[in-house]
């Protein structure tokens, strides 16, 4: 049976895993929590590296964990950081989200002051580059 998870629970999960972030360089921890349609939560935090560009954002850690475990159906995602406004996911994460999330999927973004905003995938990344934009494969 699918577990009913409230938006607030998912935001709290994101906030919880934020404490695990490895951010010695930016000192800007971010937490993300991804809910599957079957009710499982995959969480992620940002993980930085002395070779800065190798660092990975919290959202992509959560998504890649889920995909690598064979999950493909997602229902909601939450992202939290210590920002003045609900944290806007970076462009690279939006592109990765759009590969796996339906256009109508909800993404909840928040901060530590409990400001929240919910956006659809389509609102977060309109006019995205999609698999269907690639040339059709010749058989
Ligand atoms: N970061 C995320 O984890 N997610 C975002 O959507 C914004 C940025 C991370 C990357 C880097 O470790 C730190 O925040 C500062 O940019």
| The CATH homologous superfamily | Cytidine Deaminase, domain 2
* Helix proportion range: 25-40%
Low-confidence stretches: none
The strand count comes to 5
Largest sheet: 5 strands, mixed
Sketch the topology as an H/E string, one letter per element.
HEEHEHEEH
Number of helices: 4
How far from one another are the termini?
Answer: 42 Å
Number of domains: 1
Estimated share of beta-strand residues: 15-25%
Class per helix and strand makeup: alpha+beta
Ligand inventory reads: tetrahydrodeoxyuridine
Rg over CA atoms, rounded to whole Å, is: 15 Å
Please tell me the overall pLDDT.
96
Quote the CATH topology.
Answer: Cytidine Deaminase, domain 2
Spatial arrangement of strands, main beta sheet:
2-1-3-4-5
Shape: globular
CATH class division: Alpha Beta
What is the CATH architecture descriptor?
A: 3-Layer(aba) Sandwich
Description of the molecule:
By secondary structure, the protein is of the alpha+beta class. It is built from 4 helices and 5 strands. It has a single domain (7-125), classed as Cytidine Deaminase, domain 2, CATH 3.40.140.10. A hairpin with a 4-residue loop joins strand 1 and strand 2. The longest helix is centred in the first third of the chain and has 12 residues, at 7-18. It is globular, with a radius of gyration of 15 Å. Tetrahydrodeoxyuridine (THU) is lined by residues 23, 26, 28, 30, 46, 48, 55, 57-59, 89-90, 93. Residues 23, 26, 28, 30, 46, 48, 55, 57-59, 89-90, 93 line the site of tetrahydrodeoxyuridine.
């Amino acid at each position: 049976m699918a577990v009913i998870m409230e938006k607030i629970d998912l935001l709290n999960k994101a906030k919880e895993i934020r404490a695990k972030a490895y951010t010695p360089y930016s000192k800007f921890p971010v937490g993300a929590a991804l809910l599957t349609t079957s009710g499982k939560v995959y969480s992620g935090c940002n993980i930085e590296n002395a070779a800065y560009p190798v660092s990975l954002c919290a959202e992509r850690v959560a998504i890649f964990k889920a995909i690598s475990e064979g999950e493909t159906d997602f229902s909601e995602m939450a992202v939290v950081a210590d920002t003045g406004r609900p944290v806007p996911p970076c462009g690279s994460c939006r592109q990765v989200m759009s590969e796996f999330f339906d256009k109508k999927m909800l993404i909840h973004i928040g901060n530590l002051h409990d400001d929240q905003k919910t956006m659809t995938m389509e609102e977060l990344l309109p006019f995205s580059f999609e698999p269907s934009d690639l040339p059709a494969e010749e058989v």
